[in-house]
Write a structure and sequence with these properties.
190 residues, alpha/beta, three-stranded antiparallel sheet, 5 helices
Length: 190
């Protein structure tokens, strides 16, 4: 029996879509064809159950010493609190999120759930298709409620305190190198 979840898309547009998930098909019913993305809200309880079962994603922003802004996509395993990936770049979009997720799935199995906020990078079609293809459900936090995704918010606070506030990066390659070194040091020995 399919599970039906409904979400409001782009509140300013007043557009609604319904999605029915099951293992065979995805049926989309749009009230307005001008809707660009599909938001999925689930009732999955936010309990960690097993290693690699649930991943949490978010973006962190910072700037280089010359004032140039850059972003970091952080991915954390909810159960083990392991930092699975920190992708650094100037413009990270949905396709970058999918690249990181594909890289992680090649090293380990796909999770059952992804927890993310309602950012356009996570609500876009590419991430939605990736999730459907890998049998992953996406649980979006409610707008204005960062505590819905407390695991990644806690990690991002540690990341900012222990890495970003200590280093003053001169370039993106330097930021990548130092952030990856911090990520490896942060993770417990497996």
């Amino acid at each position: 029996m399919p599970v039906i979840v409904t979400g409001k898309l782009r509140p300013a547009s007043g557009c609604f879509q319904t999605i029915a998930f099951n293992t065979q098909t995805v049926a989309l019913s749009a009230a307005d064809d001008k809707c660009k993305s599909l938001s999925v809200f689930s009732s999955h309880p936010r309990f960690r159950t097993e290693r690699n079962g649930d991943w949490s994603l978010d973006f962190v922003h910072d700037q280089l010493s010359n004032g140039q802004k850059f972003r970091m996509l952080t991915v954390v395993d909810v159960f083990s609190r392991e930092a699975l990936a920190i992708e650094v770049g100037q413009r990270l979009r949905g396709e970058n999120v999918v690249e990181v997720l594909n890289r992680l799935v090649r090293r380990r199995a796909a999770p059952r759930f992804l927890f993310a906020d309602m950012g356009g990078e996570f609500t876009g079609r590419l991430v939605e298709l990736w999730a459907y293809h890998h049998g992953v459900r996406i649980d979006f936090s409610r707008p204005g409620k960062p505590t819905d995704n407390a695991y990644i918010e806690t990690f991002n606070g540690s990341f900012r305190d222990e890495c970003l506030n200590i280093h003053w990066f001169a370039s993106i390659p330097e930021a990548r190198r130092l952030i990856e070194a911090w990520r490896r040091d942060y993770n417990p020995a497996s």
